[in-house]
Specification:
Oligomer: single chain
GO molecular function: ATP binding
Shape: globular
Protein name: Iron(III) transport system ATP-binding protein
Number of strands: 20
Bound molecules: adenosine-5'-diphosphate, magnesium ion
Pfam families: ABC_tran, TOBE_2
Structural class: alpha+beta
Distance between the termini: 39 Å
Strand content: 25-35%
Domain ABC transporter: 4-234
Organism: Symbiobacterium terraclitae
Number of helices: 8
Length: 347
């Protein structure tokens, strides 16, 4: 399994840079996720890695080997796509055998490797079925076995679960993670689903408009977003308009903290679960507009006198205020982050 190095990769379509200068290193055996909204360039970057697109600028290395000029079929990558596209007229076994036959593998070795790949994805018992006799999740497993059977040095997965229903999606992502760990397959996984990315990844690159905004572990990305875009994209967060005045950030008419930045507008973020009922280091009182019981807690929307709507997440041990009431909430200063006018984190 090889490490992947991406250096300053640019890919343009008709002058528009779908990938606008991306540099990343994916370690051997890592499950690395490209996460970002639709249209941010994830698929384009994955296709550059697979060799389906030639980049306009930059380098791609597998291990120490520069692969810029290596055609797709010689890169030894396994691909799994969103629309898993198994061959409908072939049995499960034949679907998985296809890539090996194309590589002139036959006889005993073909039998052995297909059986092994089918066992990896727990489909050995269904090897003689036709795809029409399989569930969506089983078909996706066939696609996975087909990618794994060639023993790729790199597994590329482009939104592989987005055609499955919610329950199956969670089951399959656990399955993919298990396989990936067990066999140490270097994997680059693409999704626009932040929860999926947080659950499955060793590290995540958050992309926006063809660029990488931040790279980090799921916890790092969630707890220390370095840009306002990442803060807003990952999880749920409140964006509170604020100001820097004489080196001090003021939010909700209170002093939050000192920062090294010039006077001007800024944004303070605070996650709903970091706000509690009652006074805090920073407090606000408002009109409770909604209180939604969501099982694991209650989501409360509060309107402040200045018109700001703030989302609060209360745990089940706390009796939530009633809709229509006035209530006071508070949070710790350290739980808030501050971002400048360019979206950069201010410390
Ligand atoms: P994502 O996978 O993150 O949704 P894509 O990589 O598919 O994003 O697309 C990134 C941008 O490049 C989008 O603006 C898209 O319209 C454009 N794009 C992608 N593929 C092509 C193509 N083959 N021709 C022209 N524009 C493309
Ligand atoms: Mg895509």
């Amino acid at each position: 399994m090889s490490k992947v190095t991406i250096e300053g990769v640019v890919k343009r379509f008709e002058g528009h840079a779908a990938v606008a200068g991306v540099s990343l290193t994916v370690e051997s055996g890592e499950l690395f996720t490209l996460l970002g909204p639709s249209g941010c360039g994830k698929t384009t970057l994955l296709r550059v890695l697979a060799g389906f697109y030639q980049q306009d600028e930059g380098n791609v290395r597998f291990g120490d080997r520069l692969v810029n000029d290596v055609p797709a079929h010689k890169r030894n990558t396994g691909m799994v796509f969103q629309n898993y596209a198994v061959f409908p007229h072939m049995t499960v076994f034949e679907n998985v055998a296809y890539g090996l036959k194309a590589r002139k593998v036959g006889g005993q070795e073909l039998q052995r490797r297909v059986t092994e790949a089918l066992e990896m994805v727990k489909l050995a018992d269904l090897k003689d079925r036709m795809p029409s006799q399989l569930s969506g999740g089983q078909q996706q497993r066939v696609a996975l076995a087909r990618a794994l059977v060639i023993q790729p040095q790199l597994l590329l997965m482009d939104e592989p679960l987005s055609n499955l229903d919610a329950k199956l999606r969670i089951e399959m992502r656990t399955e993919i993670r298990r396989l990936q760990r067990q066999y140490g397959i270097t994997t680059i996984y693409v999704t626009h689903d932040q929860e999926e990315a947080l659950a499955i990844s060793d590290r995540i690159a958050v992309m926006n408009q063809g660029r990488v905004e931040q790279v980090g572990s799921p916890r790092d990305i969630y707890f220390n977003p370095q840009t306002l875009f990442v803060a807003g994209f990952i999880g749920t967060t409140n964006l509170l308009p604020a100001r820097v005045q004489g080196g001090e950030v003021r939010v909700l008419d209170q002093a939050l903290r000192e920062v090294k930045a010039a006077d001007g507008d800024c944004t303070v973020t605070i996650r709903p679960e970091k706000i509690a009922l009652g006074q805090g280091e920073i407090s606000f009182t408002g009109h409770v507009e909604e209180a939604l019981f969501v099982g694991s807690g209650t989501t409360v929307f509060v309107r402040t006198p200045s018109g700001q709507r703030i989302e609060v997440r209360l745990p089940n041990e706390v009796e939530p205020p009633r809709v229509g009431e006035q209530a006071t909430f508070g949070f710790r200063r350290a739980a808030a982050a501050v971002y400048g006018a360019q979206g950069e984190v201010l410390a």
